[in-house]
Each structure stands twice: as C-alpha cells, then as structure tokens.
Amino acid sequence: MSMIFNRILQSSAIVAVVFSGTVLAQDDAPDTVVVIDDGLMDQEVPVIDGGLMDQEVPVIDGGLMDQEVPVDDGGLMDQEVPVDDGGLMDQVVPVAEEDAASDEAEVAGPPPQTDIDPKTELLQQFESYKRLMQEGIYDEADSVAKRIVTLAIEITGPRSSETAKALTNLGIVQHRNQQFDAAQQNFETAIDIIEDIEDRLNDRLINPLKGLGAAQLEAGRPDLAANTFSRAVHITHVNDGPHNMGQIEILESLAETSLRLGSVEEARAMHDKIYMLHQRRYEDDQLALIPSLMRRAEWQHGAGYITDEQATYRRTIRIIESNADKTDIRLIDPLTKLGQSYFFTDMHEDQGLHHNPVTGEIYFKRALRIAEAHPESNWFVAANSKLALGDYYLMQGTHTRARKLYGQLWEALSDSEDKLMLRDEALGHIAPLNERPIPEFAGGAKAQAMSVVDGDFGQGSVTISFSVTERGRVIELQLIEVQPAEFTDMQRLVHRELRSRIYRPMHEDSDAVKSTDHVFTHLFYYTQSDLDERRKDVDGDQDAESS
Predict the structure, then answer these.
(1) Cα torsion at 390, 391, 395, 399 (round to 10°)?
(2) How far apart are CA 203 and CA 222, in angstroms?
(3) Which of 49, 406, 472, 528 could, after both became Cys, cross-link 89 (CB 3.0–4.6 A)?
C-alpha cells in the first residue's frame, strides 16, 4: 500500500551514558551508567523513510529475536539484537541520551529489583527488551536497555564484551527514536571496547559498525557512513571470505549511501555485486533468486533506472513461469510492479521522455486474473490487485474506469472489520502514485559530502500545504515555511515535484472527493558556508536597491 511518510528529524539532547573509563568523561563520575532523561523518549516519533520503508527488510539477527535467552553465567549477554541495516531508515541503533536542563542524574532504566540477583535480573530485563522491541514500544524498551547496560557493567565490568553488546542494544532502540547523535556515541563506545578486548578485525565489530553507519547516514553525514560501512564489509571478508552472504545487507547500505552522495554509478555497481553474490549462491535454484531480483528492481526504480527495472521484473516473471507455471501466485507482485514502472521516466536513458503508461495495462490485468482465480489467493490479494488496476486507469486519465473499480472495491471491503481497515487505508486517505525523490542536499552541501571533507552541515526544511481533487490532481499549493528562508531553489524543487504528482483521491461513501489541508515537509542538508554566501547576496541586493 502506498503511504505518505513526512520526513521529520527532531533535535535531541545527548543522554550521557557514563561509567569508569568509558564514553563521556565527567568530573567524579560514578562507575555506573548515569542517564539524564530529557523526556524525549515519551514523545511519538515520526517515521523517517526516504522510500525505504516501503520495502520489506530482512531482520539481521539470525533468529535471535525469536529465541529465549539462555541462562549462561559465563556470557549473559551473548545474544545481541543485531542492527537491521537492509533498510537504513528502519534500522534500530543504540544512542546516548541526556537532559541538558536537568541537574540531577538518575540511574538508567527501571528501579533495581533487590529481591533477585543481578544475573537473573539481567536475563529478565533482556527478555523484556526483546518483547518491547517486537511490539514497537520503544520508550519502555529504552528504559529497559539502559537498565541492562547498568547490570552488564555491574556484573562484568565497563570494558567487557557484554557491556559492548548492551550498549549496542541500547543504541538500537534509541535509533528507533531518532536520537542519532547519541546513537553514534554508544556505537563508537561499543566498537572501542571490542577493539580493546579483541582486535580491530574481530567479527563482533560488524554489528555496531552497521549501527554507527546508519546513525551517521541519518545525521546527514553519508561521507562518514561510507567509511564505516566499508570497514564492516572488509571485516566480513577477513572473517568469512570475499563471497560471504552476510555482507549483503551492508552492501545495500553502502549503495544507499552512495546514492545519497550522488554517486549513482557507484550505487549501481554495488547492487551488481550483490546480484553476483546471489547468483553464485543460488546457481542451482533459480526460484531462490526471486527475492534478490525484486530488491534489485526496487533499487533500480529508486535510482531512476526504469528500463533496467523493467528488465529485472521481466526476468523475474520468466524464472517463475519456467520453474512453476504461468498462473503461479508469485507472479502477481512482479506483474503489478512492472505495470507501475510505466508511470515513471528513465532519466538515464530516455533523457526525460515519458513512457506511455498504456503499455502497463496488460500486466495489471494479468495480475488481477491470477489474484481472483488462484486457489491460494484471498480477498486481500485480490483487493490489492484491483486497486492497482484502478490506479493505472487514474494515471492514464481514464477516470470513469478508475471510479468504477474504486467503487467496486469500496463495496467489497465493507463487510468485515479486517476489510474495513484495508478500505480505510486504501481509499480513506490520499496516496501518491508517481512519487519521485527530491534532492536531500542544497547547493554545495552535496559536493562537500562527496569530497569526504568535514563540514558544518545544517538541516533545513520546506513545508507546503496542498489539496487533492477528486481526480487526484494537486492544487492550491501554499508555502507554509522555508527554513532557512534563503533556500528558495529548494522550495521551487519541492513545488515542482508536488505539482507533478497524481494521488489516489480520498473517498467518502464510495465516491472520490476533494480533500484539503494536506501538509508535506521535505528535509534537506546545507553547509553553513553556502548559507552565509546566500545571505551576503541578499544583503548586497538590498544595499544596491537602497542606493
């Protein structure tokens, strides 16, 4: 389902995680973890996705999240909740927190349980942490993770592998809460501990390195993230060989990092390498290549390689047809996405010439026939296939057909609670059908990030309100705010993108209606030097006018 995720980064104070010889040094710091809670963890945190949340991202934990923590006096924290970096915006990463306004330090996490020994409490807290993470209750998971750090230090000392794992898990939940600066500190501390007690090529470094890279990326430093991810890949090569499958998620992160740096060709080469690894691994099982091909096509779409994306979906379809049959239910997804690809432009080969969306109709219709006839299909699969065909007609401008399909879908989804939930998600809100990425860097910020030169990066935003007609067109765009105001070029880019979009309109009582007061916020990065230069230009123009 298409969803709108407004990318909002909130500034946050750093929570001090302090213990003897580790992390932020303070005068007379006790040998315990001291957390100055600023209350930020109690807020609802918006999703940051950059389009990646639309993808299904594998959990990089080897199933540990589903296992019980074994009672092991020698290694209580031997299980570590790994960082999921296959979809960077989804990655849970450890962070340090602090309430700068608070003068009183509090012990991290819930009050100690005095009726049980620390080792037993540690196991109980870790079970609670896993459960809270799985349920998405991140504020409580944050408190539990801090308590785990305290217990790990109490039991094994501040410079132990168990403490490093506890810091990594703390950062995981805090990355969920977008405390990226603090996350970097906790990951770096975990890395420092492992290097101290092991070595610089130990495979235990991989997980905190992935977390550190993700935090750096979301903090607007893709240059640093690229170095961190590259080091993680190198460590996998040293420990598991150059063709190990464990490096794939890191390579995907590197590809995303290259894309944000503007190095599209480097990102493309990274995905070629990922595909080569999958081909080598599944040489005798073509159907096992399907997940890799689908992820490859999704990346090609995001990077604007639409022709390549279509070729990848066609290959996926051929593999399924050759190894199964032409009505296999697994064909629905690649057929639908192949049809949707014709809504877009290949900027690399077609030089801005738009594809004819009529070409995609046969794929939508075939997907719908399979969804409605296959014995393993269900109402949910059929409803989404019909919705996709309706979206195609809307994009094509055949509004009567689109209106008819949307109306049929509304009625079909009105007879049970589960169906009503899907109806509300699909038709009760607007959804973009041809959403394209907007540049994340303004002016010279991109060039400076690509040159891997430390710079003073700031974060700006453009916020616009708009309405959507019953035919899905964007109208009544109104600028709410540009921050800083000097970045009018970014404002124009956002306006242009929104104006070109077509949305699935909101429906009421099975009819499409005009909807108003939608708000879109785009975040971008800039350099202080660029901002200063723009302000000088403005002052110069004003002086010229006054004279």
Answers:
(1) 30
(2) 23
(3) 49
